Amino acid sequence: MAKDELDMEIEELSRKYKEADDIFKGLSEAKLTNIKGVIDDINELISQRESLSKSLMQDFEKMKIDINSVLLDNQQHIKLNPELIKERLELRKKLIEIDEDNVNERVNCWRDIALLKKELRERIKEYKEKESSASMIDKILE
Fold it and tell me: Cα separation of 68 and 9, whole Å?
């Protein structure tokens, strides 16, 4: 084999190696980018769940204020209209229901965020493992 042919073959092998290395690096980066996207999505879901819970808590408080306002208002007229007693009882039941909903929302929010954080930890671990293995392979290929 002539030196020129050997040089051309070496160049061809080097080019193929470079292409394979670029493909591998591209796939590795794509996997890391994908996992990073999932991590960002989970963080956004946590933020949205916290925001939803806060909004619901504000709505619960507003309902309680409105009901208490009606209770105070009709307390003055209870002697004039005995049917207001039944309405007051219904409104008090509604207050209790709102308090129950409030507690349930807090528990549900905590549970949802705990599950999301568990998933987040798993994805971060996966990301670090892929990053580490990609780094090791890069060192081997060098």
Answer: 88
Helix (H, G, I), strand (E, B) or coil at 77: coil
Count how many Cα atoms sit within 13 Å of the Cα of residue 16 in the half-sphere of its side chain.
6
List the one residue out of 105, 102, 117, 107 whose CA is nearest residue 47: 117
Domain that holds residue 42: 16-57+92-141
Residue 42 CB neighbours (<10 A): 19
28 within a domain of the structure (yes/no): yes
- Mean pLDDT, rounded, of the chain: 85
**Residue type at 23?**
I
Q: pLDDT digit string (tens) for 35-88?
A: 899 999 999 999 999 999 999 999 999 999 999 998 888 777 776 777 778 888
Tens digit of pLDDT for each residue in 78-110? 767 777 788 889 999 999 999 999 999 999 999
Contact 113, 50 (CB under 8 A): yes
C-alpha 84/C-alpha 74 separation (Å) is 7
Query: Does residue 99 form part of some domain?
Result: yes
- The whole-model pTM stands at 0.72
In the chain, the number of structural domains is: 1
